[in-house]
């Protein structure tokens, strides 16, 4: 009877130990899987939007350069026009046309991929062929002046032939025209036109035609992950450029792909097509490894429980109690088993498993908040930081602060010319300069080429000296042997003297605007 009783107790102890170990392993594994999936998914989504926004900015910068050129022409031409007599008087019109012709001839070369530039006057004030039209010829593709279109041959409603004039004039705002094929030159082009108004009168239009390849080449080169691509469509969804689909056709999303839509400044839709496997590969691999580790730990613990099932019941109860506490998330508890035998070894295994799990969870959290290139805090960390910072500012704990935004202006130039490795070197050099200058303030890399520093206490008081120190350090890099070691920074600072009168988002916007002004001043 005693033997049977001992066996019953032994079985119960074994069952209890195994149950506790299984629950502990499953809880640990489930917690790791949940945390990993959530953190990695959120980080991937932010990175994906950051990458697509960066590529969109590249395309928009090309479009803005075109707009800037036409805007410059419009300002210059309007400035030369002192009265309507310069249009209505034949002699003055000829002189004004010649000055404008020379202006276009001297400046058109500054616009990349320009295939035509033109200045046309109001046909109600001037002859129907008045104005300037400079275009590439079909023979040698050189820009030459040709006879302008005769307005008298077309009705204003004839969009195909004279819509490029009357549409902007009627809307009274700059207009991006839909891309079209020029049959004379065989070039698929896009136009940007600005209507001219002065003296409360319609003067005409000024515009430029650009080879559409200038836009599509940048889109064709986009590679965010493996097997992804980008295309552009008009507002109706018809394809304007796609690596494999002809123009004019609608787009159908392939299975297991993700679409990210971004609007370009000319109204077109830039769409990124990304295979889901590309953005989930790392996450799936990490989850798979965590499952294997969890299963391995579970198997080890089961075998250990079977081996030590005949040990002292009290120690097993202590182990079970320890496991249950860990399941409840009490990582700070201690295991008070000091035996120098198998049970003691099992106790140490529990302790090591807890430390390994805490280390793994800390490492995963670190990956989500640390920029892998510069080792400073990343965008995810910045979002958490400003949320806490805003609460401290609202409560009055923080009275004043400053926001410094620094942009590495030559990053994309170095990246395009020397490759990603040299661009990383440039980013690390810039990060080191910023961190060593503002060594008492948190530094974040929030975009591919942009850093943010939150200034408080001594760094806020000494900001002018520190800014001069940073400028001097940046200037010293100009003597570096390699271009990717020569840092060019545009810096913008916004100071909040009273946290109750201004929000953090307003100060961020002010600092960003000041940085853009600094960049424009440098350029």
Automatic annotation (TrEMBL):
Q: Which CDD domains match?
A: HAMP, PDC1_MCP_like
Lineage: superkingdom: Bacteria
Per its record, the protein catalyses: ATP + protein L-histidine = ADP + protein N-phospho-L-histidine
| UniProt keyword Iron, yes or no | no
Q: What is its EC number?
A: 2.7.13.3
GGDEF domain sequence ranges: 399-523
Which sequence ranges are marked TM in the entry? 290-309
What is the annotated localization of this protein? Membrane
What the entry lists under PANTHER family is as follows:
METHYL-ACCEPTING CHEMOTAXIS PROTEIN, SENSOR HISTIDINE KINASE CPXA
Instruction: Provide the protein name.
Output: histidine kinase
Q: Which organism is it from?
A: Fibrobacter succinogenes (strain ATCC 19169 / S85)
